[in-house]
Amino acid sequence: MSVSRKASKSALEQSDCHASFAMRVLSMLASSPASPLPTTCQSWEASTLAGIRSLECRTTAVPPMSANDVMVSVKAVGLNFADIFCVLGVYEAANKMLSDGSPPNSGGTSQAAGSFCPGLEFAGEAVAVGAAVKDIRVGERVYGFTRFGAYRTVVVQEAVYLRPVPEGWSYAEAAALVAQGLTAWHGLVELGNIKRGARVLVHSAAGGVGCAAMQICTSLGCQSTGVVGSEGKAAWLQERFPQAEVLVRGPQRGYAEQLRALPGGGRFDCVLDSLGGKYFSAALDSLDPMGRIIHFGATYSYGGAKDGWCGLRKWLTFVPGYLSRPMVDPGQLTPTNRAVFGFNMIWLTDRVDLLTAELDAMLGKGGMTNRAPAVGATYPFEQLPEALEYLNSGASVGKVVVEVGEESKQAKAPFSP
């Protein structure tokens, strides 16, 4: 009986050993590329930040991978107003990267000094994974965030910044999620401290961040009022968020009166502001005690600068908006316990723990995967400057996305307000 038990134990150990070996082989196969990896890619870059047309499509080397990296064959890239600010030369982090190159552990793809590739978010297929990556396999559909460098057909990024594409979503929808969702979440929840029942005013509510903010308000049980620039956008937004109040903003001078005419006298607990100018000032005045206004953009001030820093049109459109920037007296905030916050998301790339925690909270509590983001227009990768110009025109709704290769054959026509 003793010999039989030993033999049985030996056979069992052998079986376990074979099973373990088989699992290792399968894991290696799953993480190995089926074809040679790309060594070059197409990249939209600028050597000078002088406007959208300073971007050039170039053939560049694919950055080397580390053990924690994933190589992604990009299928779609989400566009953001931050990209436009970068190529206009008004985004400090972009100016620094152009002059210094990408620092180590920056949360972005490698970039050499003297050339800048914009882009914060992308989606595509994992074609190779580093030895230390456990949760992503070759062939998996992923989307992610990068500290610039997403305007490429191949992106190498740390796995911590990537997530699997939700079932049933297109690459374009996945590329429309991270930057706008994180911006809305950080502004409304981390800084705005909104709770169930809070009254929230969202500027540019039909845009990418605005739609994400409206979705978060819906998920958290807040009362949202979305502000848009045309009747066409108002109808589009109302259909997507039927429970929300929608306001078509008029000229800056009359905006305060428009807010006061809203139900409840236009009083709010939180404002998410991307306009600036007198729209900011009127929104600040609409805050109730303990209210917070979160400022993350100034499209009114900078949106007209379509020609970079040169040309008469730039001075005629940019300077008036810049000079009308609101001034806030801290002494006026104290009696009513109001607060003003300003932020951008780039600083979070220095705090991976915070960025990934907020990303997972946004996807979970924020309900951002319950419904695919609204993609308002898609362009082929080859027409990326045209896509940026359309975004900068102010006519778009939802997210503007560029698609790569086969994905671009189903391009979605721009919205006509």
Number of helices: 14
CATH superfamily of the largest domain: Medium-chain alcohol dehydrogenases, catalytic domain
Q: Into how many domains do the coordinates divide?
A: 2
User: Can you identify the CATH class of the largest domain?
Assistant: Alpha Beta
Uncertain segments: 1-30
Question: What fraction, in percent, of the residue positions are helical?
Answer: 25-40%
Average pLDDT score: 86
Radius of gyration: 24 Å
Distance between the termini: 85 Å
Main sheet characteristics:
7 strands, mixed
Total beta-strand segments: 15
Q: Secondary-structure element order, as H and E? A: HEEEHHEEEEHHEHEHEHEHEHHHEHEHE
CATH architecture of the largest domain: Alpha-Beta Complex
Question: TL;DR of this structure?
Answer:
It is built from 14 helices and 15 strands. It is an alpha/beta fold and 417 residues long.
Question: How does this structure look, described?
Answer:
- With 417 residues, this protein is α/β, with parallel strands linked by helices.
- The chain has two domains: 40-176 and 373-410, Alpha-Beta Complex (Quinone Oxidoreductase, Chain A, domain 1); 179-348, 3-Layer(aba) Sandwich (Rossmann fold), CATH 3.40.50.
- Helices cover 35% and strands 21% of the residues.
- The chain is built from 14 helices and 15 strands.
- The chain has helices spanning 2-30, 81-88, 92-100, 171-174, 178-191, 208-220, 231-240, 255-260, 277-285, 299-302, 312-323, 330-333, 352-364, 384-392, and strands at 40-45, 56-61, 69-78, 121-129, 141-145, 154-158, 162-164, 199-202, 223-228, 245-248, 268-273, 287-295, 339-342, 375-380, 399-403.
- Strands 3, 4, 5, 6, 7, 14 and 15 form a seven-stranded mixed beta sheet that branches. A six-stranded parallel beta sheet has the order 10-9-8-11-12-13, with helices on both faces. A two-stranded antiparallel ribbon has the order 1-2.
- Helix 7 links the parallel strand 9 and strand 10 (245-248).
- The longest helix has 29 residues, at 2-30.
- Mean pLDDT is 86; it is low at 1-30.
